[in-house]
Amino acid sequence: MAANPSLCSPTATGMDGDDIVTAEVCKEDDVGDGELWEVMVAGYPVLLVRNKKEFSALGSKCPHYDAPLSKGVLKGERLRCPWHGACFNIKTGDIEEYPSLDCLPCFKVTVEDGKVFVTAKKKDLESSLRVKDTRKRCLLNQDTMLLLGGGVAALACAETLRQEGFTGRIIMATKEKHVPYDKSKLSKEMSLKAEDVYLRKPEFLDARGIELWTEKEAVSVDFQKQKVHFMDRSSQKYNQLLIAIGSHSSSLKVPGADLQNVCILQTPEDSSKILELATGKNLVIIGASFIGMEVAAFLSDKAGAISVVEKREFPFQNALGPQVGGVAMKMLQNKGVKFYMKTELCELKGKDGKVTEAVLASGEKLPADVVVVGIGVFPNSAFLKGTSIARDDSGAILVDLRMQTNIPNVFAAGDVVSFPVALLNGDRSSIHHQQVAEAHGHIAALNMLKKEKELHTVPFFWTTMLGKSIRYAVA
After folding, report:
1. What does the pLDDT look like over 407-424, one tens digit per residue?
2. Which among 191, 251, 462, 471 is positioned nearest to 374, based on CA atoms?
3. Does residue 296 surpass a pLDDT of 80?
4. DSSP notation for 13-73
């Protein structure tokens, strides 16, 4: 709950140094057990928590998307963010559940004569996050951790390795042009530049001795020799290997699928291109799940006309069910988006090599200056075909709860894997979402370091459309 300003307006009681401030924030009896208060210290918001009569003070915003943690949920010593489910320990501020990569700063709390005081360094108050301490690269340690992929699974793995004391070489090799970025924003905020969605800047990785090889695509792995070969004909040996190369958008298999301006949304460049092509034009979206619906929502006031084609009766039908899907569809219909449900695309027609029309199985023809395809994904594991690594029928790599494959010293994480899900009674599943991929990368790192940890996470999903959020957990 938010604190009453008259009770919690800070009163400076002294400076314990040039950069340290102590402020009275409230009376001891004002805060009930289990309550979350946002108080002010030297003009900065601080989260005050009372748990089992003990006070803790932490950064007030979730480092992920700046959600107000005073609206979060406290259970024991774990505080859960109200927006996307990141969890923090109220005693240490440490991150205990993703999607946030960073921790919360903690501040000293004292109680004197029934008054509650918070003491903090000004520089810590200025930031709502704390980056975990890490070990530095030591050239005497020749062990190499090779991480294939440049997404959140590989990033979480690399950071965890350093946080847990690994001093050897860490290489992230990705076919992407960029440092790891927040892919969830590509369809929600399409006007952002690539740099605006970076999760870490290049200098952050450099400072921690994490090598990032961009535009470096793996084409084969020799598991016996522990060596990866790349598209540019180079190779790299490893002591431990993480395969976290994600998934790729499924492509259309209809006549005209190769026409210009038929797009998938995979990278920041794709997002910018779709926004540019669709502005003021006729946009046809194939598929009404997360990508399709988020793109339709963002472009609803920018494109000339939007048509969504989906073979099921409702958007999100498989993931969220018909009721939620029906509400989402109505929201977009009210913005002028047209839906063509229980039908499929059977052909794209064009002129001068560019798409101009989408023909549906019903015979209906839709004007189409640009087509966005969001009909699912498949794992990026084709380069492993013919090897001894275990994969399922879709190509997903099979791992256990330690993210270990059937090959020694080889782990896999993120969209490319199928893993046992505790809430599905141990049945395997591929779950394509940021929080899950980060948890995979973290657990893989711990087991690469022989720490014998198993995955225990509740998959959490979210989508945002027209200022409204849908959040759900797999339970």
Report:
1. 999 999 999 999 998 777
2. 251
3. yes
4. EEESSTTEEEEEEEEGGGSPTT-EEEEEETTEEEEEEEETTEEEEEESB-TTT--BGGGSE
- Name which of 161, 269, 153, 150 is nearest 202 in CA terms: 150
| pLDDT per residue as tens digits for the range 80-133 | 999 999 999 999 999 999 999 999 999 999 999 999 999 999 999 998 899 999
Q: Picking from 151-165, 208-222, 317-331, 365-379, which range would have the lowest pLDDT averaged per residue?
A: 317-331
How far apart CA 233 and CA 73 sit, in angstroms, is 51
DSSP state of 250: P
The tokens describing 41, both together, are 């210290």
Query: 200-233 in b/e burial notation, b at 16+ Cβ within 10 A?
Result: beeeebeebbbbbbeebbbeebebeebebebeee
What b/e sequence results for 296-326 when a residue is b if at least 16 CB atoms lie within 10 Å of its CB, and e otherwise?
bbbbbeebebbbbbbbeebbbbeebeeebbb
Q: For the chain, how long is the longest CA-to-CA vector?
A: 81
Continuous H helices in 115-190: 122-125, 152-163
